[in-house]
UniProtKB/TrEMBL annotation, chains A, B:
Domain HTH arsR-type: 1-93
Name of the protein: Transcriptional regulator
SUPFAM superfamilies from the UniProt entry: Winged helix' DNA-binding domain
PROSITE patterns in the record: HTH_ARSR_2
Native source species: Micromonospora arida
Coiled coil: none
GO MF: DNA-binding transcription factor activity
DNA sequence: GCCACCTATAACCTCCTGGTTCTATAACCA
DNA sequence: TGGTTATAGAACCAGGAGGTTATAGGTGGC
């Protein structure tokens, strides 16, 4: 998938509150489809569709545990999206020189899938 | 507009390469609709529609200069989107303690529309 | 007043999205 | 073998997105 298309898919995936909530849930650890569907007033196939969107964007990967297909957060696209947004940081950040350093670091980091630390997402809102 | 809906609108607006290119162009300064439309193999009404999407998301504001309606980048939603993404930074950043400091700063900054510095966006891609 | 220019609106098309229900598949359990 | 659970797929629907062309509206120039 081209760079641009990946960004398209990532931002499109993030544009839905259900999907953002799913990502927030997954940040706390792996979960099955049923577990992910539980909080929503929505059918299971609807959740499966959302997961397929997230998977297409590379935001989620699936494992196999008997009948279960546990979902895992893959944050690399989130990093790419953040990197894109960072191009506009000068518009809203005062002390942006430290940000420059940071972003340079950020763009050289490439260790997706390793060394998971507890994150602290805060749901669908800001 | 609710917080969640704003994020919805922002991410949805960013999910289109034409719109990302428009934002990149606007980062270099104000531009009229005709100017914005020029680089695209697309009709003027199509661009007007894209601008309406960007405007609904708060990413663009319009002025008035005779018949022209110059567009200006409004980066606050970009900041909000970045702040949301930052919740997941622990998944892809090594030295994230500096990021903590940074993001705290970031969230307390609130000076949209003031003190514009030259930015350096890099187009639609990464 | 009239024309040219810039932009927005209207009407229309196609395709995608997000939801539904029903059903199929696959794995475990008894 | 048959039943139960977990998930995916198919068919369907309504609505929205992104594009088109044609046209209307506001503004300045002559």
């Amino acid at each position: 998938m081209a760079d641009t298309e990946l960004l398209d898919a990532t931002f499109a995936a993030l544009a839905d509150p259900t999907r953002r909530a799913i990502l927030a849930r997954l940040a706390a650890g792996e979960a099955t489809v049923t577990e992910l569907a539980a909080p929503f007033a929505m059918s299971q196939p609807a959740i499966s569709k959302h997961l397929r969107v997230l998977e297409r964007a590379g935001l989620v990967s699936r494992g196999r545990d008997a009948q279960r297909r546990p979902c895992r957060l893959e944050a690399r696209p989130l990093r790419d999206a953040t990197a894109w947004l960072a191009n506009y940081r000068d518009y809203w950040v005062e002390s942006y020189q430290r940000l420059d350093v940071l972003l340079d670091e950020l763009q050289s980091v490439d260790h997706t899938g390793t060394e998971r630390r507890p994150a602290r997402p805060n749901g669908t809102g800001g």
